[in-house]
Write a structure and sequence with these properties.
mainly alpha; 6 helices; 78% helix
Length: 120
């Protein structure tokens, strides 16, 4: 199915929100991620989905919101999918605990801009 940028953004927002809620509700810490493979499996699926939707956003959408590192986000998805065995889990912890909350704010801000008709 071909999604519009707005639909993809909605999916990115929802998946980011669900991942952050899971981390909080399950009391997942960096140490747990580093030690427990089932947790790593649980967090990578949402990261794949976010990256895949980011990858498929239109170039014009990404250019209009160039303050977000879209290429790095989709690149993370490609690394997780194609080079999973060499994943740097400390880096993934930095992403999910330090970067993802700010990313959530940024994509929600874009979503709200679109909803209010204030598109770039």
């Amino acid at each position: 199915m071909k999604y519009s940028d707005e639909q993809r953004l909605e999916k990115i927002c929802a998946t980011t929100e669900k991942l952050l809620q899971y981390l909080e509700q399950a009391k997942i810490t960096k140490e747990i991620v580093l030690e427990q493979e089932p947790v790593r499996w649980a967090i990578t699926t949402p990261l794949y989905n976010i990256g895949e939707h980011v990858y498929n956003l239109s170039d014009s959408f990404k250019e209009a919101h160039s303050d977000i590192p879209w290429a790095k986000i989709s690149g993370l998805r490609h690394r997780l999918v194609h080079d999973y065995d060499n994943t740097n889990w400390s880096l993934i912890c930095t992403i999910i605990f330090d970067v993802l909350p700010d990313f959530r704010k940024s994509v929600w801000a874009i979503k709200n801009e679109i909803a209010s008709g204030d598109q770039r």
